[in-house]
């Protein structure tokens, strides 16, 4: 066998896929051939890099995905909280102002006054109810966003 023949065995040797006979012949040649020794070292280096890449890449992606999810959840929670606070303030402030004005206005019919008050109170109650439901679901199912 000549050097190029042994080079054909090199990848098999690195992957430990040679039979005992091939392995023996290859290592025997390797002992007396610096050329093949160098090449084996280079192959080994390449293989190590390839193995490392294969190991680290999916893990990096996993971590990126993980952090993206955490961030998304944080972002959505923050957005939801800000929106809720703003809505509650506007609803209560606007609602009370409107109720006060309507009730003090002698030209507005009593029935209309009662209707408007009921409408605003109803909206506020519904809003708080939906908010509580959302917060409850969020607490109960913390991995909802990750699964999605
Ligand atoms: Zn050789």
Defining traits:
0% strand, mainly alpha, 148 residues, binds zinc ion, rod-shaped
Radius of gyration: 36 Å
Uncertain runs: none
Distance between the termini: 59 Å
Secondary-structure element order, N to C: HHHHH
What does this protein look like?
With 148 residues, the chain is an all-alpha fold. The chain has one domain. It has 5 helices and no strands. The protein has helices at residues 3-14, 20-31, 34-104, 110-140, 144-147. Helix 3 packs antiparallel against helix 4 (110-140). The mean pLDDT is 81. Zinc ion binds at residues 3, 6, 29, 33, 35-36. Residues 3, 6, 29, 33, 35-36 line the site of zinc ion.
Task: Describe this structure in a few short sentences.
The chain has 148 residues and is mainly α.
List the helices and strands and how they pair.
Layout: H1 3-14, H2 20-31, H3 34-104, H4 110-140, H5 144-147
Helix pairs in contact: 1-2, 1-3, 3-4
The chain binds zinc ion.
